[in-house]
Amino acid sequence: MKKSKVVLVQCTSYDRTAVEAAVAKGMNLLGGMSKFVKPGERILLKPNVLAGDPPEQCVSTHPGVFRAVGSLVKDIAGEVSFGDSPGYGDPVQHLKSCGLLDAGKDLGLKVADFHKGKETAFKHSPFTKRFLIANGVLEADGIISVCKFKTHMLTRMTGAVKNQFGCIPGKVKKGFHIKLPSAYDFSRMLVALTLCLKPRLYVMDGIMAMEGNGPRGGKAVPMNVLLFSDDPVALDATCFRLVDLDPKNVPTSEIGREWGLGTYLEEEIELVGDRLEALVNRNFKVSRKPFRDILPTGTISLIKNLIIPRPVIDKEKCILCGACVRACPVDPKALDWKRENTAKPPEYTYRRCIRCYCCQEICPEGAIFVKDSAFTPVGWS
């Protein structure tokens, strides 16, 4: 049986020379960029751009890693474009604020259209059968996913598999949280989406990673590694093992293997490059408890609200920006200004809350965290 290859390359800084050397080494160990890109093709680079925060905050793929990968692609492809669709606002403005727009322009790359999209049927999908995909994605012959090493409150970690969610225009994303309030169903959708788009290559920026209250409000910590693979499940599983997290405790792992996207099993993965054991950080802050799904129903039940961890606002950190209110996908909102008083932090109506944690994800100050209730059973996510 052929094993899935994952390359690990140690890299301790974003120094341009060091990053370019590490990316070149990683791609050579994986077979070279020409294995994934052919002359004359239109290739899309898909970084992770949750929000336009500065690179040092580790919210998005670092421009240095993006530039190094893009340079190798540009040497072969006919046209290279790039883009992502954050959960709110203008995608191009977010690219600019996090430094990726300048990096792309330095290479002469085209900004892809992530504002609008077209509905695409995926007839052989094991789950979601139709997706609205950004025009810039549909116009490309192939995708290279340049993801980020981060924690995530809904799915434990975000990485290679989850990065494709940004191929759906931002305003449409909220609908998936309404339709799929179960973390397992949301993960099934992510796997189906990745099967639909079939990126050719995945590169993960883990030189600096985000632990704790990710994917935006956590703490930047050095992991000193870049990862490369054409198997997103294997790459993510290797990322999880680097922080002593059992891949079984991240729902996309087993779903991805079951549906043929890749494998998370150690015996089915060939690790190449630097030794994983030398890069492991067992002090990395992430939930390592066995994953338990929320109740398998779209209703917002009393039981669900009692036992499922809930988002909570730290009023001392809240800057009253309202980003969390705008991010709440339910109608009427589960998080809103009380009596329209924007001089005080918004308040939750937990009986409406579907536990999608969109509010926590989008908060620019890390002022929202996820807290177990008094009734949360031991072992629940």
Spell out the CATH superfamily of the largest domain.
LarA, N-terminal domain
What is the CATH class designation of the largest domain?
A: Alpha Beta
CATH architectural type of the largest domain: 3-Layer(aba) Sandwich
Bulk shape: globular
* Count of extended strands: 15
Structural class comes to alpha/beta
State the order of secondary-structure elements, H for helix, E for strand: EHEHEHHEEEHEEHHEEHHEHEHEEHE
CATH topology term of the largest domain? Rossmann fold
Main beta-sheet strand count, sense and barrel state: 9 strands, mixed
State the helical fraction: 25-40%
How many individual helices?
A: 12
Tell me the span between the first and last alpha carbons: 34 Å
> Can you give the mean pLDDT?
93
Uncertain runs are none
Beta-strand share of residues: 15-25%
Backbone CA Rg: 20 Å
Q: What number of structural domains do the residues give?
A: 2
Structural account:
This protein is 28% helix and 22% strand. The protein has 381 residues and is of the alpha/beta class. It has 2 domains: 4-278, LarA, N-terminal domain (Rossmann fold); 302-371, Alpha-Beta Plaits (2-Layer Sandwich), CATH 3.30.70. Strands 1, 2, 3, 4, 7, 8, 9, 10 and 11 form a 9-stranded mixed sheet that branches. It has a two-stranded antiparallel sheet with strand order 5-6. A two-stranded antiparallel sheet has the order 12-15. α2 packs parallel to α4 (100-106), α7 crosses α9 and α8 (232-242) packs antiparallel against α9. The longest helix has 15 residues, at 16-30.
Short note summarizing the structure:
28% of the residues lie in helices and 22% in strands. With 381 residues, the protein is α/β, with parallel strands linked by helices.
